[in-house]
């Protein structure tokens, strides 16, 4: 079978040899009973890297975000989200389904919410309106093409949150990409947030898993919520062992993904039909809008696939993501395919 150059997502990354060995050798126990030493090690490591008291290993980023919204809110409350955010658009509406709160989507500048706009939308409880209780941020911002939300935005939003007694949750699925791109330690972003979720299973290449970090008491409560949602896992040290490698060995290499995304963006941005500013490609995600006299997005994706290149259609555009399992040759192959199809 021909090997595809798979740019659909960084979730397609396979575990490394070292991870497979670590899974084989992992010490395990029943984690629901608090007996898995490898999970405990991962949770301590994740908390310390984020500068928080405690962490919880969860099966997916979506479950981490679901738990976060639930732990910070009650019914009849409202949550401020960015309008293109993953938590609002791509997590099957858990805000209404699980937490029974109303999302209040606000527009942003490439994922960075305006603190003054947030201030205008904070609602105090009345007989007519829900109380605003939580602000959700996302960094890097997936649907804004992996844009990095500046640290100043976090600082200013924290001030607004403090003024009104709101909590701040960060969907940091790719917070390590933001950190590597801008040279800001992840702790710095986390400092302005009450909780952070981040994924081990994307660019960090673990097969499964995400982390939720916060203060100890909140994580104790989050552990109960995880169980209630069916996310209590037993000898899950086999997966936590991979997570430890993600955090200790797989962070620095994210910069290679950023270089490759930039190179690919620069090579294709001026081809017919593509609208893309390569300067806006800051991390490992490229989203371009496509309007071509002969080809629809669907046809473009089909022709790319014929040439061995996989990409994903998103919101009237095309998404390409670089990661551990696409190298310079894959990038060259993609560039050549785009040129042959569009030039
Ligand atoms: C992937 C992703 C998630 C959720 O991760 P899953 O593990 O797929 O549930 C959350 N937020 C963002 C921004 C993501 O890209």
Outline of the structure:
This protein has 343 residues and is of the alpha/beta class. The chain folds into two domains: 5-12 and 253-342, Aspartate Aminotransferase, domain 1 (Alpha-Beta Complex); 17-249, Aspartate Aminotransferase, domain 2. Helices cover 42% and strands 17% of the residues.
What tags apply to this protein structure?
alpha/beta; Aspartate Aminotransferase, domain 1; Aspartate Aminotransferase, domain 2; 2 domains; seven-stranded mixed beta sheet; four-stranded antiparallel beta sheet; 14 helices; binds pyridoxal-5'-phosphate
State the share of residues found in helices, binned by percent: 40-55%
CATH class of the largest domain: Alpha Beta
Succession of helices and strands: EHHEHEHHEHEHEHHEEHHHEEHEEEH
Query: Structural class per helix/strand content?
Result: alpha/beta
Tally of strands:
13
Radius of gyration: 20 Å
Number of domains: 2
- CATH fourth-tier homologous superfamily of the largest domain: Type I PLP-dependent aspartate aminotransferase-like (Major domain)
Tell me the CATH architecture of the largest domain.
Answer: 3-Layer(aba) Sandwich
Low-confidence stretches: none
How far is the first residue's CA from the last residue's CA? 29 Å
């Amino acid at each position: 079978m021909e090997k595809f150059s798979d740019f659909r997502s960084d979730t397609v990354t396979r575990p490394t040899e070292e991870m497979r060995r670590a899974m084989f050798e992992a010490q395990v126990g029943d984690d629901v009973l608090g007996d898995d030493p490898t999970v405990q090690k991962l949770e301590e490591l994740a908390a310390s890297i984020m500068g928080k008291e405690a962490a919880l290993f969860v099966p997916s980023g979506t479950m981490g975000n679901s738990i976060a919204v639930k732990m910070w809110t009650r019914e009849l409350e409202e949550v401020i989200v960015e309008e293109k955010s993953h938590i609002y658009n791509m997590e099957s509406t858990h805000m209404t389904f699980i937490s029974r709160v109303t999302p209040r989507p606000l527009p942003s500048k490439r994922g960075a919410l305006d603190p003054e706009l947030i201030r205008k939308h904070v609602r105090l409880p009345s007989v007519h309106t829900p109380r605003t209780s939580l602000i959700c941020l996302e960094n890097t911002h997936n649907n804004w093409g992996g844009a990095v939300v500046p640290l100043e935005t976090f600082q200013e939003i924290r001030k607004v949150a403090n003024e009104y007694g709101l909590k701040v949750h960060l969907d940091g699925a790719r917070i390590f990409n933001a950190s590597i791109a801008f040279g800001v330690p992840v702790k710095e972003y986390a400092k302005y947030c009450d909780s952070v979720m981040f994924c081990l299973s994307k660019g960090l290449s673990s097969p499964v898993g995400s982390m939720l970090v916060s203060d100890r008491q909140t994580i104790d409560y989050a552990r109960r919520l995880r169980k209630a949602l069916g996310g209590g896992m037993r000898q899950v040290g086999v997966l936590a062992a991979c997570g430890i490698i993600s955090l200790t060995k797989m962070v620095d290499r994210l910069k290679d993904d950023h270089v490759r995304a930039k190179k690919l963006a620069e090579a294709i941005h001026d081809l017919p039909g593509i609208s893309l500013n390569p300067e806006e490609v800051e991390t490992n995600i490229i989203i371009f809008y496509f309007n071509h006299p002969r080809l629809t997005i669907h046809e473009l994706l089909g022709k790319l696939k014929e040439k061995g290149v996989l990409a994903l259609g998103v919101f009237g555009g095309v998404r390409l993501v670089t990661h551990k399992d696409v190298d310079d040759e894959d990038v060259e192959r993609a560039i050549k395919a785009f040129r042959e199809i569009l030039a």
